[in-house]
Amino acid sequence: MFLIRDLHDLEADLAKAKDDFQWNGTLEQVTSFTERALAGKTLRSPEDFYFEGAEGKQVHGFVVKPHGWKESDNKKWPGLLFIYGGTSALASPARRTPKKAFPGS
Fold it and tell me: What residues does each domain of the chain span?
């Protein structure tokens, strides 16, 4: 579990952001209860992407590609679409995404 300090500052910066937002803060690790369960496992990092949504607005998404995936392969791979709702600017893989949705990804 990680903690974000100065959340009000982060929310204010997000509200002022016009385009891409790059957070320069740091996360503070406050627990390590999954450390043993994750020992020896390799978790893939999500990759950000953006697409045009309603009224021409940019919508943020992310993809976690399966182990062994190569762009050059002409092979079908399983996929998972995770849609989060609401207006939360902090919904992201690092925060509110249910990690159980991506086991072994």
Answer: 2-101
